Amino acid sequence: AGSRSAPARRASVRARAVEAPANLERLRITTPWEDAQITLKEEFGMTEAEIAAAGELSDEDLNEAYETMQLCRDFENECNQAYMAGKIRGFMHLDNGQESIPALLKNAIRKTDLKHSYYRDHCHALACGVDAGAVMAELFGRDGGTCRGTGGSMHVYDMETNFQGGWALVAEQLPYAVGAARSIVLDKHLGTGEAEDRIAIVFVGEGGAQNGRMAECLNAAAKENLPILFLVIDNGRAINTFTKDVAQNQEVFNQGKHYGIPGVLADGQNVQDTLRIGRAAINHVRTKGPAILQVHTFRFNGHSPADPEHERNRKDEKRWARAACDPIKIFEESSDAARVDVEGCTKRAKEEVRKALEFANASPPPPPTLAAELEYPDPTGTVDYSKREPEMGLAKAEEVTAATVPAETLTALKGRIDALRAMASAPTGISIGDAVNLAILEEMVRDPTCVAHAEDLQAGSSYNIPANTQQAFGTLRAADEIIDEGHFIGKALGEAMNGYRPIVELMNANFGIYGMAELSSAGNTYATTGGQFNMPMTVIGAGGTAPNQSLGAEHSQPFHAYIMGIPGLKICSASKPQEAYGLAKSMIRDNGPGVLLLPVKLMKTRGPLTVDNFLPLHKATLQHEASDDAIARGKAVTVLTYLHGTKESEDAIEILKTEGYDVDLIELTCLKPFDKETVETSLKRTHKLAILDESTRSGGVGATMSALVAETLFDELDAPVLRLCMEDAPVPYATEMEKEMVKRASDLVAGVKSMC
After folding, report:
1. Which residues pair with 263 in a beta bridge?
2. Domain total for the chain?
3. Are 274 and 167 contained in the same domain?
4. Which PANTHER family does this UniProt record tie to the protein (predicted)?
5. Would residue 37 count as lying in a domain?
6. Cα–Cα distance between 198 and 181 in angstroms, integer?
7. Could you count the other beta carbons within 10 Å of the beta carbon of residue 383?
8. Rounded to whole angstroms, what are the CA distances from 209 to 173, 182, 252?
9. What would the pLDDT profile of 361-397 be if each residue is shown by its tens digit?
């Protein structure tokens, strides 16, 4: 575009002066800087000096903006060619027509700011300083890519520039960015951060902004006055559907009014106005609090190269917009173009794209083993959690805690911890809930990067798990949350990417169903980022299905089975205080995401606890060993179980022993990864396996375990695996029906006898 002659540019002006086709339903808007200033004064409370600073565009600003737009246009055009040539695969989403937004990023967003984009992320990454060659190589699936080829087009990450995605599920990035903004505030609170006017910026389409996550995140941003900019890219289409067809109100910039968050609209076809208005909004976030910037644009390409664009008027709109609404052409025809070295900027942009292609083509493919190597940040069994210090070191951590927790509060907290430790060694023992609470309090006082999220947190939730955290550490480190687990799991994910160790308490594990997308992304993040971002997040919930539970179907779902298929999650369970405490301590110190499941009907059950114990996250626990006599007589069976099944099995053992049978009882304190070694050791003795399972026959934990045993330990079996599991029907409330659904001690007794 920059190399055209002046007559050619004037000709294009005449072409664009032609009226838009009559069938178009969305036209260009204008947001003159003079009008925008009124909004900035009235809604943002900006001073004349602040407005003047935002509105002053230097020659350097304009040259940088033009070169950035040309870089993005050329980069995306080459991506399109590479896609057609088969060098880029999967889904790809191009940004042509929306280049004023990366121009703003280049101008006003800093390296230290935390950026969360969506699946149309290439140009955002380039403008934020991510190397063009690394971005192109990532799209090519090469080892030199930003994520070593693990992420691809929709998942560009770069730790060096704090570019934190590339997220592919629409609107999922919103709570992650809120968590990132909280990490900035936490850094200030703890005195550990740099550049204290840092901000978080999150990109979302106007269609994605209709998602309920937007309202939740605006509420959170307002409640804690977080430094976050919601940048809404409004191209009028949710994929191809007209947003107006599904949204009652498309003025996303006004969504924040209910929460006291100001918003402003900019014409994305006018890069000068976008720069001025955008810089004003960004300055507000840096100095005052959250804001919304909605940029009205036109996307020149389909949603992706595979998009047939069959929706009404789409092709007519695209043809017209390319001629009449191109931000690059519009700038070239403005008086400001005379202040820009058009040819020089264009040449440099083309050269950068050429080098990017050269680098991507020369970069080798990643090793085939890389995906498996990136499953967990802490590979199975490699970490002694008792010796892992806080990232800042123990001495610094103690100093920060002393500086941020009042002395009298810290004294009271240590008194509470001492009382719980005394309870653990008392004859009556300690409850599971209190054991986990002890683990959390110890870790939060030891490491100030540990933070907690829960509903009803002030009151200790349902089982005391997060009790006393807010009273001791304040609302920033111990946050009471709205009733949406996906929201606060998402915030925890954003914190975990930025140096914190969030602990999420679900109250009831089944409530985690609301957060399946966020849990999935937590499990994927370390690998998808090519190993750049750890994900030290612990999710704790009481769940499972106990006999005679009488909670009905929704509170009796096998959430543990639902999450078994999420890669990258370590999933543990505990039926006793000893295991609950030891697993919680280790999981909090692990650098990857973990889920600790507890038995909902046994949370107040007391038992002994050895404090300061750290259990491995990859080992099952042998809770009872069958006698040698029973083994010799062929009257012993290996039993795998977890949660309430452990107690049911112990009750069954007492009955079985009176009749000459016995059991190797293995509690699956680690549901994933599979502890083959412990199971194999037992099967070499008993050669028979029964699984007492609190999940359904189809897709349940028992199904996974029996398949793994059949695949890897088949030669040790003298009989088919016996699965005592829930049937596929929903768990009923009435006891008479529930007995047929949920297996218990009596079923295990009968099962063991039948196998022997």
Report:
1. 292
2. 3
3. yes
4. PYRUVATE DEHYDROGENASE E1 COMPONENT SUBUNIT ALPHA (PTHR11516:SF60), PYRUVATE DEHYDROGENASE E1 COMPONENT, ALPHA SUBUNIT BACTERIAL AND ORGANELLAR (PTHR11516)
5. no
6. 9
7. 19
8. 11, 20, 7
9. 999 999 999 999 999 999 988 899 999 999 999 999 9
To which residue do tokens 């049978």 refer? 661
Distances (CA, A) of 251 to 104, 207, 295, 296: 21, 11, 11, 10
Give pLDDT tens digits for 60-95.
999 999 999 999 999 999 999 999 999 999 999 999
- List, in order, residues 6 or more apart from 452 with CB less than 8 Å away: 440, 444, 466, 469, 470, 473, 477, 478, 479, 502, 503, 504, 505
| Cβ-based neighbours of 16, under 8 Å, separated by 6 or more | 323, 324, 329
| One domain for residues 547 and 592 | yes
- Domain of 412? 385-607
Residue of 67, 114, 126, 118 lying closest to 91 (CA atoms): 118
Mean pLDDT of 665-691: 97
Cβ within 8 Å of residue 372, ≥6 positions away = none
For residue 454, the domain's CATH number is 3.40.50.970
pLDDT digits (tens, 9 = 90+) for 470-484: 999 999 999 999 999
In a domain, 223, yes or no: yes
| One domain, residues 630 and 703 | yes
Q: In degrees, to the nearest 5, what angle opens at C-alpha 101 toward C-alphas 98 and 105?
A: 150
Report the first-to-last Cα separation within the chain, whole angstroms: 82
Residue of higher predicted confidence among 592 and 1: 592
User: Which three-class secondary structure state does DSSP give residue 464?
Assistant: coil
Instruction: Please check whether residue 135 lies inside any domain of the structure.
Output: no
Going by C-beta distance under 8 Å and a sequence separation of 6 or more, which residues neighbour residue 472? Answer: 405, 409, 410, 412, 413, 441, 444, 445, 478
From CA 725, how far away is CA 125, in angstroms rounded?
A: 49
